[in-house]
UniProtKB/TrEMBL annotation, chain A:
Any GO CC annotation of this UniProt entry: ATP-binding cassette (ABC) transporter complex
Superkingdom per UniProt: Bacteria
Cross-referenced Gene3D superfamilies: P-loop containing nucleotide triphosphate hydrolases
Gene source species: Cellulomonas chitinilytica
GO molecular-function term, one example from the UniProt record: ATP hydrolysis activity
Keywords, alphabetical: ATP-binding, Nucleotide-binding, Transport
Protein name: ABC transporter ATP-binding protein
Domain ABC transporter: 14-244
Family matches, as SUPFAM superfamilies: MOP-like, P-loop containing nucleoside triphosphate hydrolases
């Protein structure tokens, strides 16, 4: 068996080509090509209904594609049942077996693969230990908190040492603190075990924090695949620019006046400096691009303040300023004030217009 | 909800009155079955187990108990198989006529018993040309027992959803192993609860039994009905009635406990 390879010569854990799924009249997935490298943490990011979960379920084998293929480690598994694929899933609602103890839940995959009782108990205990649930084996899932159930689901999947672990919004049901803690832990576990993770989320911050690469989904298609920095700093389409971060688009006449060129341009909020119009010389320094406007909204978010500014040239920009010297009292007074917004030209990036530029890179032809 | 003191008192009193209305007559029957007086002077001056001993040795009562148990066991077994299969079909698959089908399955419990009973009698004798027997009684009972089993099973299947089965297959179990280790254990409690209720329902049924039983096939409720007018049998009738109360209450109590336990006490 020869594994499929990507351009850099790395082995591909998952290779998806021309994947399509229709539910009745609804096209949930509309021609998806995706490569997941061995050992990679890849996130499928998109709003609900964008097809990311359906792609995950087709990789797991729960849905049969209408068209297209799924390969795992170079082997076409498109028509294989879930139990004939070397992948395991962490489900959104965990899907623990309520009638079994935590230990039996974790040992289940080994049990149905006929691993001896002694060995499977030992490996299940180890897996529970690795998710900090060493003493919980005898409990029922109903006796655990949400975060603990999440860890059991993770241990239950990881104990089988799958080639690929699929995670379907596994942190969605947790509160913010636990969520952030689990993001760090998940990433650490993934580095430690070296298993390929395919992670589904609609939370762009989560995606940026955890992923090696991100595939951004919209309307059943992939808009862009790239590293978090690629996707955030150089979004390929207006959709990506808007979904990952705040959109901050300058188009048409505004773009010509401010950027000096045609097309649709964007600047991330934290790159923009906000100054009162009456401060300083009144003109933008030569090395910065800038424009003027009126503050419509001031949102104090603790460490920083978000300004929503209506531009004189048309359009709206959001700027984020660290609260280094200011306090909430100072910034609240700025609502309605005239301000000047400036940024360094290298922080502008051009956003492809949907019609003119193909956002999705053309994949390698299927051999 | 927290009502005012007065509202709570009023609700409490109404509740007590309602419960008393239902349960006092039942308690009277049970107490009377121990009443030493043959004319049931109230309150009982003296208690005795004499009627219970007499009932236990009464051949016609013993025959009726055996008949009732036989009918209930057969009806429950048929209902268990059909009800569970129907629940799977209607909860797990999408097909044409599904809505109508699920209505048809539960309809027998809503139809007037006397109509069902008459329909069965006519159906068995005129259309199928069958002699009425203990089997015709059991089959007739099975129709409403199916509804009970179906309702329990379908509720459980809908509540647990497909996720546990998907998780099982994802972890490497094939369809049969998944059924054995996940689907059936999760459904078992609901099936048992349904079976217990169905058994209780069949055990004290009278209308359908009257219409579908031939002379000589006497279930316990029919025995009571036949002996109600005989004054010398009154003590034994009381005991049989008390037994029927117990036989009906115990399965309901057990089924409620089973239904609560089998999911591990909570939803996951």
């Amino acid at each position: 068996m020869v594994g499929a390879h990507d351009q850099d010569g790395g082995t591909l854990a998952v290779r998806v080509r021309g994947l399509r799924k229709e539910f009745g009249d609804v096209v949930a997935v509309d021609g998806v090509d995706l490569d997941v490298r061995d050992g990679e943490f890849l996130t499928l990011l998109g709003p609900s209904g964008s097809g990311k979960t359906t792609v995950l379920r087709m990789i797991a084998g729960f849905e049969l594609p209408t068209a297209g293929t799924v390969e795992l480690g170079g082997v076409d598994v498109t028509r294989r049942a879930p139990f004939e694929r070397d992948v395991n899933t962490v489900f959104q609602d965990y899907a623990l077996f309520p009638h079994m103890s935590v230990l039996d839940n974790v040992a289940y995959g080994l049990r149905v693969r006929r691993v001896g009782r002694r060995e499977r108990t030992q490996r299940a205990l180890e897996a529970l230990g690795s998710v900090q649930l060493g003493g919980f084996g005898a409990r029922r899932p109903s006796q655990l908190s949400g975060g603990q159930r999440q860890r059991v689901a993770l241990a239950r999947a990881l104990v089988n040492r799958p080639r690929v672990l699929l995670l379907d919004e596994p942190l969605g049901a947790l509160d913010l603190k636990l969520r952030e803690q689990m993001q760090v832990e998940l990433k650490a576990i993934q580095r430690q075990v070296g298993i390929t993770f395919v992670f589904v989320t609609h939370d762009q911050e989560e995606a940026l924090t955890m992923s090696d690469r991100i595939a951004v989904f919209a309307g059943g298609r992939i808009e862009q695949v790239g590293t978090p920095a690629d996707v955030y700093e150089r979004p390929a389409t207006p959709f990506v620019a808007g979904f990952v971060g705040t959109s901050n688009l300058l188009a048409g006449e505004a773009a010509r006046q401010v950027v000096g060129r045609d097309g649709t341009w964007s600047v991330r909020p934290e790159k923009i400096r906000v100054e009162r119009e009456d401060d300083g010389t009144g003109a933008a320094p030569d090395d910065r691009h800038g424009t003027r406007g009126t503050v419509r909204e001031v949102v104090y978010v603790g460490s920083a303040t978000r300004f929503v500014v209506d531009l004189d040239v048309g359009g709206t920009l959001v700027a984020l300023q660290q609260n280094l010297q200011t306090s909430s009292m100072d910034v609240q007074g700025l609502r309605g004030a005239r301000v000047r917004l400036t940024w360094r030209p290298e922080h502008e990036f051009r956003v492809a217009d949907e019609a003119s530029d193909p956002a999705v890179p053309v994949p390698d032809p299927v051999p | 909800m927290r009502g005012s003191r007065r509202a709570r008192w009023t609700f409490g009193a109404m509740m007590a009155l309602g419960l008393a209305f239902v349960y006092v007559p039942l308690v009277v029957i049970v107490i009377n079955s121990f009443n030493a007086s043959t004319v049931f002077a109230w309150p009982p001056k003296e208690l005795t187990t004499r009627w219970w001993v007499e009932t236990a040795h009464n051949p016609s009562v013993r025959a009726a108990v055996v008949t009732s148990v036989e009918v209930a066991v057969v009806a429950t077994a048929v209902a268990l198989v059909l009800g569970t299969l129907l629940a799977f079909a209607l909860a797990r698959y999408r097909f044409f006529g599904q809505q109508a089908m699920s209505l048809l399955v539960v309809l027998p419990i809503a139809l007037p018993g006397i109509v069902t009973a008459l329909a069965f009698r006519t159906g068995f004798r005129t259309f199928l040309g069958l002699e009425l027997s203990i089997w015709t009684v059991a089959i007739a009972h099975a129709t409403f027992c199916v509804v009970i089993v179906y309702n329990n099973a379908v509720a459980r299947l809908r509540r647990t959803g497909l996720a546990p089965e998907e998780a099982s297959m994802d972890l490497g179990a094939d369809g049969f192993t998944t059924f054995r280790l996940v689907t059936f254990p999760l459904l078992r409690g609901a099936m048992l609860a349904g079976a217990l209720l169905a058994f209780g329902l069949s055990f004290d049924e009278i209308v359908v039994t009257l219409f579908t039983a031939p002379p000589g096939v006497t279930t316990l409720p029919i025995w009571i009905f036949q002996n109600l007018q005989r004054p010398n049998q009154a003590p034994v009738v009381n005991v049989v009635a008390a037994v029927l109360v117990l036989v009906s209450v115990v399965p309901i109590y057990l089924s409620q406990r089973v239904a609560g336990e089998s999911t591990g006490g909570g939803r996951i």
